[in-house]
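REQUEST FORM: STRUCTURE PREDICTION
Request ID: SP-0412
Submitted by: Lab K.M.
Chain count: 1
Length (residues): 145
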Amino acid sequence: MARDRKPLVWFAAALLFGLSASAGRGDPVQVNTIRDVFARLKTCWKPPPPSQANGIDITVIVSFNRAGDILGHPKITYESEGATDNDRLMYRVAVMEALQRCTPMPFTEGMAGAVAGRPFAIQFHNRKLPPQPVEKRAWLTPKIL
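STATUS: Completed
RESULT:
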């Protein structure tokens, strides 16, 4: 009888090993909404370090096929107007690297059919905004009577 259990024990051990290996692999989370597409792209974005380029805003239009790969060629449609040629080059490279890191996009079956061939305008922001002035008004300051 113990002989009959031995293959079962080996099968159970192999099954547990396989499950733990696949769980540790970090299978990508399926992209099911447009919001998920932008969230995933945000995790792939790594702007150039400030020591190499000034922060700029850049927008790229890209389309995906059903398998989540880039369809055609991404097109840069906007760059901050005060950017130097070096800044533009560094940010264009960073955008293309972000797209490469995120593709193929792991679309769900329904999302793959919905977005295939449709253009996405993706904005990458890295400009440092000036600090907002603190508004001071006479009626907002406390008065001691």
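NOTES: DSSP finds four helices and three strands in the chain.
Reviewed by: T.R.
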